[in-house]
Design a protein that fits this description.
Blueprint: H1 2-23, H2 32-51, E1 55-59, E2 63-68, E3 71-76, E4 80-86, H3 90-94, E5 98-104, E6 107-113, E7 119-124, E8 131-135, H4 139-149
Parallel strand pairs: 6-8
Antiparallel strand pairs: 1-2, 2-3, 4-7, 5-6, 7-8
Helix pairs in contact: 1-2
């Protein structure tokens, strides 16, 4: 999806630059509102590229925060009942990468994943989603930290 966002960003940038430097020379230049629309599309796709460029994980003693830019999920450790690694393919399990929702074995999952990275599954006690899945380059370290933070039953 990031590739599509980058392609669209470049397309609108090229269209805007073309109209500013080449389109104005012709006998029928674009109306002024066209420049505003091209700029807004360019800015919007640029914001999407920047937002989904990196998956960030922050672990504190109170919670774990996973997110793509402004789209973040904060999960308090009190709501986590267990964790385990997830080795299945993101395309096979969820239909792609990014932010996904899926029903697996009767439980709704919220998924924040990226290609070519293993994932961790947090089992949740409350909320619409009973499992929260996210990719990480350091699954062993994240699982060890998570197991230390999960309240003992």
């Amino acid at each position: 999806m990031l590739g599509v966002f980058i392609a669209c960003t470049l397309l609108f940038l090229v269209l805007l630059v073309y109209q500013v430097f080449v389109g104005q020379v012709g006998s029928n230049p674009a109306p002024s509102w066209f420049y505003l629309i091209m700029f807004l599309w360019f800015a919007g796709f640029s914001a999407l590229v920047r937002n989904f460029n990196k998956l960030a994980i922050k672990i504190t003693t109170q919670s774990i925060t996973v997110g793509f830019g402004v789209f973040r999920r904060v999960t308090p450790w009190e709501n986590v009942t267990g964790c385990y690694s997830h080795q299945d393919s993101a395309i096979g399990s969820y239909g792609g990468w990014g932010i996904r929702m899926a029903k697996v074995k009767g439980k709704w999952r919220l998924v924040y994943n990226v290609p070519s990275c293993p994932a961790i599954v947090l089992e949740l006690e409350k909320g619409r989603f009973k499992e929260f899945v996210f990719s990480t380059k350091n699954p062993d370290g994240v699982m060890e930290t998570a197991r230390q933070q999960i309240p003992k039953q």
